[in-house]
Structures are given as structure tokens and as C-alpha cells.
Amino acid sequence: MMNLTLKIWRQKNASDKGKMVDYPLSGISPDMSFLEMLDVLNQELIGKGEEPVAFDHDCREGICGTCSLYINGRAHGPATKITACQLHMRSFKDGDTIYIEPWRAEAFPVVKDLIVDRSSFDRIQQAGGFISVNTSGNTQDANAIPIEKENADKAFDAATCIGCGACVASCKNSSAMLFVSAKVSQFALLPQGQVEATDRVLNMVKQMDEEGFGNCTNTGACEVECPKGISLENIARMNREYLSASLKG
Ligand code: SF4
Ligand code: FES
């Protein structure tokens, strides 16, 4: 069993200044997940009549992208290619001090404690992250359209982005380029995505800029911290898509 000191960001609401608060926690099993460890803390806090720590989670299996925790200065913690909910306490040692903070980015304002508002990502998606489907009765079976294996694989890899925002949180410029480029690439590589290709990239980039995300300076921290291993190659593809769409427009 492990004894830990947690230093957790507490912030009552969006306008509260917020501060780090120390919580000693004992009896933690190395087999617990990181979120189960926070559940134990919250159970203790509730038992003492104190306000539990607010944190986001849903699937707890690396799919939904909501568990946006900055742990010991890294998005999703010390392990690579996993989300905070997939992190286990065996990644830490007995006696460790663990710093837990929310994502920090102007476009992700803190709602409460460790929860941030990532609706800026939703608005970027709504600006172009979709395809039109012909529902006239002539709809072609998707499997009848030949697609090169290499493109199908790359499109699938891009589609694994879970919209967690770790790329933004780990970027010194709070750039959302990796996220947006994954969403653009997912369609740019497939015939189904060609109908709206020009509008898609222009509108999604415009929305990204309006939301207050910073510029990309090719630092590459996003790729390192992305739990799904989304490649920087997608950013290069989006830049090409953007240039050719601008020339058409
Ligand atoms: S690109 Fe990676 S880090 Fe960024 S939102 Fe998608 S899955 Fe998360
Ligand atoms: S809770 Fe869904 S990805 Fe972590």
C-alpha cells in the first residue's frame, strides 16, 4: 500500500482565483487506477463534510477524452500513449508527492477544480468536421468505393483522436493544430471527404483562430503527449489542404 501527498488545484468556479491544496492520502493500492485513487480521496473528503474534488471522466477506458488532468507537469501523467484514466498508481512510488492540475489554456477556461470547458473543440468540429451524406435513395455502399490501403490506414489513425486536448495543454503556445489537423486529415484522405474539403479546412482553421488557440511553432510536444499517437504528419497535411483551399477561394 502507498502513502502519498497530493497537491491539487482547487477553484470554486470560473471567476475564483484558485490555489493548490495539500491532501495526504494513505492505503492506496498500486493496482488502482489514477481516477480510483481520486475517488478514494473524494470519499474521505465527503466523509469529513468537505467539498470533493471536481474532475471530468466518463468512459474510464481511454475513449471519451474527458479525463483532462495535468499530472506532475505532464498531460495525462508520466506514461506515454495513455489517458489519465488508464494510468495506474504503480507508475508512482510510496511517499511520492503528486501535483494534479487542470489543462491550462485560454481557450479551455476552468469551470471548477480540475474541470475545464472544452466546448471550443466542439465549435471547431461544428465548423467543418463532418461530411454530407446523399440520402436520396442512391446512397452508395461505402465498401464499394475503392480506397488505397495506405490512405485508409492514415485516415483511421487520424480518426483515433479523442478530442482530449492534451495537445493544447502540452503546447507552449496552446495551439490546437494537432487536434484540428487530425479532424481535417480524417476526411482529406477519403473520397467521402472531398465534397466539402475546401470549406472544411478554411472554416475549421478560422474557428480555431477565433477560439483563441495559439500558433504552431513546430515544437512537437503535442505529438509526444498525445495519448493516441496522432502524428505531426497531419499538421503538414492540413497546411497543404489550407494552402490549396486558399488558392481556390
Ligand atoms: S490530437 Fe491527441 S492530444 Fe490532441 S485532442 Fe486528439 S487525441 Fe487528444
Ligand atoms: S475517462 Fe474517458 S478517456 Fe479517460
UniProtKB/TrEMBL annotation:
GO molecular function, one term: electron transfer activity
Known cofactor(s): [3Fe-4S] cluster; [2Fe-2S] cluster
Domain 2Fe-2S ferredoxin-type: 2-104
Protein name (record): Succinate dehydrogenase / fumarate reductase iron-sulfur subunit
InterPro entries according to UniProt: 2Fe-2S_ferredoxin-like_sf, 2Fe-2S_ferredoxin-type, 2Fe2S_fd_BS, 4Fe4S_Fe-S-bd, Beta-grasp_dom_sf, Helical_ferredxn, SDH/FRD_Iron-Sulfur, Succ_DH/fum_Rdtase_N
Lineage of origin: Bacteria, Pseudomonadati, Bacteroidota, Flavobacteriia, Flavobacteriales
A Pfam family per the record: Fer2_3
Highest rank taxon of the organism: Bacteria
Domain 4Fe-4S ferredoxin-type intervals: 152-182
